[in-house]
Amino acid sequence: MEKKPQTFANHVKYDPQFHFFLLPVLLINVIVFAIQIYRFPGFASAWLFIISFALLSLLGMVRGYATRLQDRIIRVEERLRLHSLLTEPLRSRIGELEDSQIVGLRFASDAELPALVQRALNEKLSRADIKKAITNWRPDYSRV
């Protein structure tokens, strides 16, 4: 199956199980128990609200851990890529790039990477600005 080419407009990945089932169900659960506390104050209602909020928080933490870990892996991969593609004096400035800039640069093709790194450093481009500046998109289909 051929994958759809990625662009800035379509590169965000939605996980149906997370975004369209787990998150809404746990969010609704918090709302239901907040209403329960209002209508029937007491220890049991408060405890159920706390548990529902804890489950929603746990879901956010698990998702956050996965994306932060993936960002760490991307930073390692991209630093290796930058070392192999950049020439001096740009290569010696890799350490000046912010982590979010490195994560954004992963989508840039090898050909446009040096110029984009230069712009990111000189103009302090954000991750979104870097992604918007990419003309030849290098897809990442395995993002969590």
- The tally of strands reads 0
How many separate helices?
Answer: 5
Q: Oligomeric state of the chains?
A: single chain
Radius of gyration: 21 Å
| H and E order | HHHHH
Overall shape: elongated
Count up the domains. 2
**Strand pairing plus helix content: what structural class?**
mainly alpha
> Strand count, sense and closure of the main sheet?
none
Low-pLDDT windows of residues = none
In percent, how much strand structure appears in the residues?
under 5%
Average pLDDT level: 93
Helix content: 55-70%
First and last CA, distance: 20 Å
Q: Describe it for me?
A:
Helix 1 runs antiparallel to helix 2, helix 2 crosses helix 3 and helix 3 (99-105) runs parallel beside helix 5. This protein is mainly α. 64% of the residues lie in helices and 0% in strands. It has two domains: 14-72; 86-137, no CATH class.
Name its key features.
single chain, elongated, mainly alpha
Reconstruct the topology from this structure.
Elements: H1 16-39, H2 43-85, H3 99-105, H4 113-123, H5 127-133
Helix pairs in contact: 1-2, 2-3, 3-5
In short:
By secondary structure, the protein is mainly α.
